[in-house]
Amino acid sequence: MKQYILNWWGNLSAQEQADWQSSWVSIASIITVVPAIILALY
After folding, report:
1. Residue 20 in contact with residue 12, Cβ under 8 Å?
2. For residue range 7-31, what is the model confidence (pLDDT) as tens digits?
3. What is d(CA 42, CA 26) in angstroms, rounded to the nearest whole number?
């Protein structure tokens, strides 16, 4: 499975890799921020 992911990643263009990385960053920040907001409200 890991080899498959590495092959897929290697076939992406640099722009696509940058898009994936930025989307992962925004997903991670949402996961971090949403519980903090919920905790702040309660």
Report:
1. yes
2. 887 888 888 888 988 899 999 999 9
3. 24
Amino acid at 29: S
Give, in degrees to the nearest 5, the angle at Cα 38 between 30 and 28.
Answer: 15
Q: Which amino acid is at 34?
A: V
SS3 annotation, the chain: CHHHHHHHHHHCCHHHHHHHHHHHHHHHHHHHHHHHHHHHHC
Alpha-carbon span 16 to 27, nearest angstrom: 16
